[in-house]
Design brief:
Blueprint (H helix, E strand, L loop, with lengths): L5 H10 L5 E3 L4 H10 L8 E3 L12 H11 L1
Parallel strand pairs: 1-2
Length: about 70
């Protein structure tokens, strides 16, 4: 369940061409399932779980992975 303001905020950011990503210590598959369940998975350009990096949060590696991946 999301707070009422979250989905409209994310949609507005996406519409404004902001790039949205998630970094979580959950697995990527689980994070995608949760975000899909609450109806916001498609608003994110990238979802990175702890399984995608050697050193998950609080290490900076997840953020670096997102920046490197989205930079293209």
């Amino acid at each position: 369940m999301l707070f009422d303001e979250i989905k409209p905020l994310l949609e507005a950011l996406k519409k404004d061409k902001k790039i949205l990503a998630v970094a979580t210590n959950a697995s990527t598959v689980f994070a995608k399932k949760i975000l899909s369940y609450v109806g916001i998975e498609d608003l994110f350009s990238l979802i990175v779980g702890a399984d995608k990096v050697k050193n998950p949060k609080p290490n900076k590696e997840m953020v670096e992975y997102i920046l490197k991946t989205l930079k293209g």
